[in-house]
Input
Amino acid sequence: MRSLRRLYTLGIFVLAGAIGSTFSPWTAAPEEDAAQIETRWGQLEAIAAPQLPAGDSTLLAAAIATFEGSSLADTSPEPGDELDPAAELALEELVAWSRSGGGVGAGVCSNPNLRSFSVIPLARAALHGARSPDDPRFTAIVELGLMLRDRGGMLSALIGQSLLHRALTKVDEEGWKLPEVFYRERPTDAHIRSILARDVVCTATHVDEGLRSGIIEPAHLAEGDLEKAVATVAFDRERELSFFRAALGERTLRALETKNPAVAMELFTPPREEEVKSLLVRDISAHVEVYKHPELSFARYNALLLKVADPYRDRDEVTP
Output
């Protein structure tokens, strides 16, 4: 009986040791000094800092919510279509947002609670009703596009650039004189770098908020049996954020020193199984290819800009 007890006890110790050795890499802190990690992260935040001022997004959120009750929320208006009352009211709120000097939120990142995808049908309706480049509905969409592009992470930037592209297409289709703002605020490599830096910084902020609130669960970040087990029994939010700042901070700053940061980010990111022992880093790194999207979007926009601007250049109506 005693030998059976000893064997049972020994088995428990062996099992505990095996479990400990399995999970210990997932509970250890980053090897790099915490102060060094924070210093580098501060450098990334400086690059990510928006050049446009912050502003209240209350009226913009109201316009988006109002428009979602419109019959045009899920479709595009055809030429000659009249806007329904909900759409008209939403556009009035949008113009009021613009005239009040509103923004898309405070801090480094745009307001994550804005229903960004709903901005696109709102913009379609605003541009549909615009009668000139000075129309307040048109200028409001241009302002919104710039703010989303220059104050948000990857998703906001792409939606903002989409609004600017739609507005520029309207200028082209109507044969309007090209407003100088389109050339002055045309996207450049500097925009790509700040968007990439801001997306990494904003991702850390939004994920932290999501984990704290329960909107994001550790299991959402896991892939495979081991990672799912880690998410269940060994997940530590502060440790995960430390690894994120350490790995993504270093990787992003190094990529920003290259000629093509988006491609460099992909090259600097190892396969998931070779990535650091962090569910958050592994999950974010699995989608690193999205960093190429702004470059493609900007190239299409600048090609259209050259096409629209060309007739005016000879008459010096647009100054690069």
